Amino acid sequence: MNRDEIEAANQQVIEAGAFVKPLLEETGKVIVGQSYLMERLVISLLANGHVLLEGVPGLAKTLAIKTLSDTISVDFSRIQFTPDMLPADVTGTQIYNPQSGEFTTRQGPVFANLVLADEINRAPAKVQSALLEAMQEKQVTIGQTTYPLPLPFLVLATENPIEQEGTYPLPEAQVDRFMLKVVIDYPEWDEERRILDDWAKTEGLPEASQVVTSEQILSARKVVDSIYVDDKVKDYIVNLVCATRDSEKYKIPAKDLIDLGASPRATIFLTLAAKSHAFIHGRGYVTPQDVKSIAMDVLRHRVHISYEAEAQEKSSEDVVQLLLDHLPVP
To answer: Does a structural domain hold residue 13?
Structure first.
């Protein structure tokens, strides 16, 4: 791209992304100290990818997702996953009407734009797998009929990492369908102090208002698709994903630490997420730093560490960081 093309692309992104700053400011009225989380949620919305949130109870995971839906004119539904749920509780079912002798379809809570799957690891595998078709194909089959889901469609799931009793590990096929896995931590002292001032009362709690329409989101996605990615950056993305499968080829000391590398879906998601990261920062082109900034959230749940890595007390995040530190940046 020459300078004029870069300036034109930047201007197009700035105009299409004018809603990003008001959106983050509006959510910031409710969600204190989780700017990283809210930015990742906006990235997922722009990149049309699902998000898995992990964090201990009380860190506003559910509130963050609900607040995001309040700022956008979209349908929102919340599914509280429990061990006794059935797949029909998610997707819907056919109900027999004895008077007419016909079956009618009752659509489940998955038929919404933003679907909050709260504590998704509390439901058994057959219920979790009920989301697979919805997440990948953006459709749901009930009986012999397939129904398209509304657009935009996003699954935002939460899980608690510390409780093991009464939980079921997510199937790998489902984990891989989440574009991002965002791990959130406790707020800083000054943020905690503001939370006290804003929320330690019984009335007049902070609320978010609508500042963007679903049409603006869908229009912004078209601009995200047009964001320029240089061949060298594309090569860097492919090298990063391939390094999770064969670190020796890239002379990275991680061969014995990785049991299973990332799938090609990681390459696609990393590119889309990097484009969205560039978009929210007002750029019409992707830099290697965009890739590095979002890589941890795309790869942490796709790199499966070995027993040797566990013996060395290394996590998948440590291994991904090792790859990022050693792989040459264009």
So the answer is: no
Q: Is the pLDDT assigned to residue 9 strictly greater than 70?
A: yes
| CB within 8 Å of 207: residues ≥ 6 apart | 29, 30, 70
Distance CA 60, CA 79 (A): 16
In this structure, the answer to whether residues 116 and 67 fall within a common structural domain is: yes
DSSP per position, 170-209: PPHHHHTTEEEEEE--PPPHHHHHHHHHHHSSSSS-----
By percentage, how much of the chain surpasses pLDDT 90? Answer: 25
Q: What is the mean pLDDT of the chain?
A: 87
Pair 180, 240 in one domain: no
> Is there a contact between 139 and 159 (Cβ–Cβ < 8 Å)?
no
pLDDT at 170: 78
For residues 50 and 154, is the Cβ–Cβ distance under 8 A?
yes
Residue 15 lies in a domain: no
Q: Write the CATH number for 248.
A: 1.10.8.80
